[in-house]
Amino acid sequence: MGEANSGWINGFLGVVIFSGSLPATRVAVMDFDPIFLTMARAAIAGLLGALLILAFRERRPGRGDLVSLLIVALGVVVGFPLLTALALRHITSAHSIVFIGLLPLSTAIFAVLRGGERPRPVFWLFSGLGSLAVVGFALVQNGTASLTGDLMMLGAIVVCGLGYAEGAKLTRTLGGWQVISWALILSLPFTAALAIATMPASFAGVGQPAWLGLGYVSTFSMLIGFVFWYRGLAQGGIAAVGQLQLLQPFIGLTLAGWLLHEPVSALMLAVTIFVVLCVAGARRYAR
Q: 167: pLDDT confidence band, cut at 50, 70 and 90?
């Protein structure tokens, strides 16, 4: 199997794992404070990452890697989880998932700025059409929309795209699971301290679904998913494999409707299908 094909397979596995993140976060923030949830999930994943580093006796990253690791930590360890957790207090997970349609464009832009990739002009046409469809959908919503929630989701997409591109670039020399592990470890003193500071006085009112949501986002969303995702981006190209994120709304919408019984409108599905078709075209012209 060629490296490019391996990249698409690893990328797809990462997307499938990430697709459960927003529904799981939506369940968790019903009983947990968003800031506590963000810091707790990162701290738990950081401890797991530290155990992996110790178990495999991985070498420490060089000084030149620290800036990139800090960007990864700010983008995907703290920024994206915190902004999405706050946004999900204003919007449904089904609505927020459609914003993931902007992630391929955000990732591709940072692939150019940080990764040195140069997709063809037609690639940007398809990516732009998909992004416009997502933004248009957000603007025409009424009861399920919230300007505050939408702006937070847009901010989350920007910092996540930067974290994805930066982490994929670093994966080429450091390794996929090593990148996310070191980023989690780097932010562990901060996330652990804030998790303790924002910890609720009692967990008596926290239901089982919220605990399951915390467990999922701590292990799968923050660690395991990145093992596959960063490896896929590094193997198949950041801009190209990044287009697989357009499958995430479809998978996520299905999960939101099935697990949370949230309404999934015909318009929501139509926008998602259109965006996926746009990304199929973008993938063809990514290189």
A: very high
